[in-house]
Specification:
Number of strands: 0
Number of domains: 2
Radius of gyration: 20 Å
Structural class: mainly alpha
Order of helices and strands: HHHHHHHHHHHHHHHHHH
Distance between the termini: 42 Å
Number of helices: 18
Helix content: 55-70%
Largest sheet: none
Strand content: under 5%
Length: 342
Amino acid sequence: MSTPRSPEPVQTEVASSTTRLPVRLFVIPMILVVILVAIWLPIRWMLHPNDDPKSLVSNLQPINRDSWWSAYAMSRLLQSPDHQDLKDDSELCRQLVAILASDLTATATDESHVRLRVFLCRALGEFRVDDGLPVLVEAASSRPGAVMDVRYAALESIAILSDTLGRERVVSQARLIDVVLQASRVPTQAHSERETSKLRATAAFVLGVIGGPRARDRLARMLNDGHANTRYNAATGLARSGDERAIPVLLEMVDADAPAAVQGETTSASRALKRASVIVNGIRATVQLAHQIPQSDLAALRVAIDQLTVRSDLSSRLRMDAKRALVQLNGNSAGDDRLQGM
């Protein structure tokens, strides 16, 4: 199972188009919801959507094996541009908080309950009020009976709220930074290696968004993580904060031949997608780093990005991204004229 909407895609599995964090954050989304929805969402639901929030909340109580449909529909409703007013509805938010808080105390860990919690976390991440933060922190914690998929969803919703509400408002939430740091240190023996790697990568994603000294210090340590996605999220988060410690991993990200970027991908198509996603995020993070600290020595990154512009095995769009980045990195206005003729 997996998470909300995000910028440019990358994942050891596949990328999601549903995690909504803006591209300007230069972070790599870690949780997949689109694939789950494609599997779970019946055609009858798509043909007869319910867009009444009161009915959806009513359908969530009492909780049963089909309640997660309504939680999913609510999350989609909150994402819809036609229902932006719902994002400011504190009462609706508190109703969903109460349902999620109640279900988190239940011992049930069957698939329908896990889906319900995941989509409730998704929905709470869409609000422009902070009533959902405490229960999201609880859902992201390593409390007894915690389910990894729910922790992923809660963490990414915290990142979205950080962008929506502002970092200071989010990090002031009791236990939040401690819970995210705890997730970044989850021991492999506690779960499968795949699950723990994914949780660390998600935590790095969140730390990069919320920022601050404690987050940056932890991200610097995560640059040496054995899991590529964790390293890449750590590097993009540090770049966003203007931290030069990101440079060695950014160099790995913009290296089209780096084997770690596509490790675990089983098809040529998935390898190409993953490689392109990593490169794009590496390029954008490099530009962000240069913007934050204009006097930094990014010569090696400039050379690496310049090499991308002549790679025939990369898409023309990706080569153009590299060329535009070089114009920004070099501050070369003449480059704009060259680009217009391409």
